[in-house]
Design brief:
By secondary structure, the protein is α/β, with parallel strands linked by helices. Helices cover 29% and strands 26% of the residues. It is elongated, with a radius of gyration of 20 Å. The protein binds S-adenosyl-L-homocysteine (SAH).
């Protein structure tokens, strides 16, 4: 069933964005009495269409759904260029990321003009919302901003990891770190751009508590590294083989 993120107005009526109403009516070709899901404050409401013009919904049932990871993952991405970033935002959302902080590092190719930032952020937020709806999440990841690399000094996760191409294939203790993850812990992950990290950046991260990890012997593209790392962590956070994964 189609899912949308909505709000309640002062009278307790369900409100959808105009573009979502357009989607329901024109794309899904919905009719009166058709059902859809609306997520409001992390709760899923099964709603039926009461009226098409003006659009209104009726609550059928409220549900609690367990779709979110038991822990917060913050992705610090030193932005791959072009539509790869769109792809990373979408896939990271599907994999359960809680927050995404876009970083401008020394070798980040994308240079975002301050003037263009608000427009870009709105577009990125739309990607996150749509990916959350598609993945049936009950939360939309928070997109913080496009910030300078030095922002990683403020990272405050229980576990902080930097995927470092320089230790690719070396023993970094990643498996031991993963095995110690406790539900509810927050994890910060830092992935470099296509050009990789400068050594000084890795040093800064390490001096602020990030542990360097290897993602295997091969060098992955930035976007693959993000997906790989998030897949591994979400698997471990959900209890690996115990919680319906295998
Ligand atoms: N241009 C660089 C590679 C950058 S890969 C070079 O040729 O060395 C882009 C980012 O993906 C890296 O900064 C790192 O964060 C991550 N990454 C890719 N492969 C990795 C691996 N095997 N281990 C750890 N991190 C990796």
């Amino acid at each position: 069933m189609q899912r949308y993120f909505g709000k309640l107005d002062d009278q307790g009526n369900i409100i959808l964005l105009e573009e979502d109403i357009f989607h329901v009516i024109k794309v899904m070709r919905a009719r009166v009495n058709d059902l859809l899901e609306v997520v409001i404050d992390e709760q899923v409401i099964l709603a039926s269409i009461h009226n098409l013009h003006p659009f209104s919904l009726k609550v059928v049932e409220r549900r609690h759904e367990d779709r979110e990871l038991k822990g917060l993952i913050t992705l610090y991405s030193a932005m791959p260029k072009g539509d790869k970033l769109d792809w990373v935002l979408q896939k990271a959302t599907e994999l359960g990321v809680s927050r995404i902080i876009l970083l401008s590092s020394k070798r980040t190719i994308v240079k975002v003009d301050e003037m263009d930032k608000p427009k870009k952020i709105i577009r990125y937020q739309k990607i996150l919302k749509e990916a959350s709806e598609q993945a049936k999440r009950t939360k939309i990841p928070l997109l913080v901003d496009i910030l300078d690399f030095s922002f990683i000094e403020k990272a405050s996760g229980d576990i902080k990891l930097i995927a470092d191409e320089d230790v690719a294939g070396k023993t970094t203790g990643f498996m031991q770190i993963l095995k110690k993850i406790i539900p509810g812990q927050s994890i910060d992950i830092l992935v470099g751009p296509e050009g990789g990290f400068e050594r000084s950046e890795v040093k800064t991260a390490v001096s602020h508590g990030f542990q360097t990890i290897s993602l295997g012997k091969r060098i992955l593209r930035s976007e693959t590294a993000v997906i790989n790392l998030l897949s591994i962590i979400s698997f471990m956070m959900e209890g690996g083989e115990q919680n319906g994964h295998l």
